Amino acid sequence: MNKASLLAGVVSVLAGRPSFAQGTFAFSNATLPGKPRILGCDGLGIAGANYLIDVLVKNPLTGEFTNAGLLKVTTQGENPTVPISPLSGFNAGLFAGATVKVPFVAPGAYATIKVIVWDKNTGATYDTAILRGNLTFDIAKLGGSGSPPSLPAAMAGFTSFIAFGLACDPEPSTGALAVLGMGLLLVFRRK
After folding, report:
1. In CA terms, which of 38, 55, 79, 107 is 20 to 30 Å from 178?
2. Who contacts 98 (Cβ-Cβ below 8 Å, separation ≥6)?
3. CA-to-CA separations, 167 to 41, 130, 162, 170, 171, in angstroms, rounded
4. What pLDDT sits at residue 132?
């Protein structure tokens, strides 16, 4: 091994950026069969710039979900992971991100992915938003292995989900009033 490649490897490790290959996957549900969507409380796909979607990957060393170190590869180059907005119109609920490089999961290895979504009108970040949701799923084999590297893995485990879960349920008092009203209608109908 020559001194230059040894030095590059040492610098890479010290900088926290491994010099070995990184697993990859396509951060997109728009190309999946059946086009599973992120749904709002109305059961329709979410759309608009007020919604943000991001991705986290479980680090096998820490067991924690993180986006630290993830890179999104676009035609403009590599960028740290940043949230994206869903598509609109007929494609509401779909998103088309980029190829994501995962530095802490090797190509061909298993990875657990978490897609997060939030309404930025209720909080600037996922952690601070009131309306938020997520979906966790597995990818059996990340792309990037072999020579030439295999294509990025598809998010095949992604399924449609309602983004805001409990926020979609009516207030308990609303449900109670509905039951009371139905009961009164039945009583008056019998008379």
Report:
1. 38
2. 26, 27, 72, 73, 74
3. 8, 9, 10, 8, 9
4. 94
Domain that holds residue 23: 19-190
Global pTM? 0.78
Domain assignment of residue 128, yes or no: yes
CB 22 within 8 A of CB 103: yes
**Cα 182 from chain centroid?**
41
Q: Does residue 82 sit within a domain?
A: yes
114-136 pLDDT, tens digit each: 999 999 999 999 999 999 999 99
Measured CA to CA, the distance from residue 129 to residue 57 in angstroms comes to 20
Q: Determine, yes or no, domain membership for 4.
A: no
Residue 6 is assigned to a structural domain of this protein: no
Q: Which two tokens stand for residue 180?
A: 């009371």
What is the CB-side half-sphere exposure of residue 84 using CA atoms within 13 A?
20
pLDDT value at position 16? 44
